[in-house]
Design brief:
By secondary structure, the chain is mainly α. It is 71% helix and 12% strand.
């Protein structure tokens, strides 16, 4: 996967997770397989709206669907969730590095002030 594809995938993952209903659906299907019909029964929105949420999760790779008779069954993809956690971990490392540099600069300035007798 090149950088552009990786960024497109990150966009899709975070777009999918940016919605409260999609996060709730993902939590439910990570615990176990659910039919889209059963998922839709929990929400005060149309079945079609829930189908669209599931489709967004599926396009992002966070959910897979299979057909069983007339039912569409959705399952959460743990590896995709781990990839999101990994991306957030990388961002956290960048942030921690910046905070460490700020702490070093502040300590250096404080030492210089003390050495000057201020």
């Amino acid at each position: 996967m090149d950088d552009s594809e990786a960024e497109d995938r990150a966009d899709a993952l975070f777009h999918a997770l940016a919605d409260r209903t999609r996060r709730d659906i993902l939590r439910r299907v990570l615990v176990g397989e659910h039919s889209v019909t059963a998922l839709a029964a929990k929400y005060e929105m149309s079945f079609a709206a829930v189908q669209k949420h599931v489709a967004v999760l599926e396009r992002a790779g966070l959910v897979t669907k299979r057909r069983s008779g007339r039912e569409h069954l959705a399952t959460g993809e743990v590896e995709a969730v781990r990839s999101v956690a990994s991306m957030l971990g990388e961002l956290e490392e960048v942030w921690r590095g910046r905070v460490a540099r700020i702490d070093e600069l502040l300590a250096t300035e404080e030492k210089a002030r003390i050495d000057k007798g201020e």
